Amino acid sequence: MRHLEVTLAALLACGGLPGTALAACPGNTQLEINDCAASAYRDADAQLNAVWPAARAAAAASGADGLLLDAQRKWIAFRDAACAAEAAQYGGGSIQPLVHADCLRRLTDRRTADLRALLPQ
């Protein structure tokens, strides 16, 4: 357990994990923290899926629907590959699911903001 505490402290000090990831997931065990991070990602994904129809409609209005759909598919592939690479350095460790889920949440939040920016004001 001490090794985990040192690892978490090092990650926070080096910016490897955002402090909010741990603050938002208070748990007593790594499993509880991992589950909370996975839940935060599911919430972020739900927000992205809620914005998607409006972003796609806005793109369709300008004739860019196909371009946005292609970009979204490529973004999903990028997100999955980037987060797999970020979590790989913790392969086999109990913190790996936390790192992976937090990366998915972070990139999904950014994509949701990008899609919102496409919406008419």
Automatic annotation (TrEMBL):
Q: What InterPro entries has UniProt attached to this entry?
A: LprI-like_N
Q: Which UniProt keywords apply?
A: Signal
Q: What's the protein name? A: DUF1311 domain-containing protein
Lysozyme inhibitor LprI-like N-terminal domain residues are 28-115
User: Which residues constitute the signal peptide according to the record?
Assistant: 1-23
Q: Which organism is it from?
A: Rhodovulum sulfidophilum (Rhodobacter sulfidophilus)
Q: What is the lineage of its organism?
A: Bacteria, Pseudomonadati, Pseudomonadota, Alphaproteobacteria, Rhodobacterales
Q: What PROSITE patterns does the annotation carry? A: PROKAR_LIPOPROTEIN (PS51257)
What Pfam families is this protein classified in? LprI
Gene3D superfamilies associated with the record: 1.20.1270.180
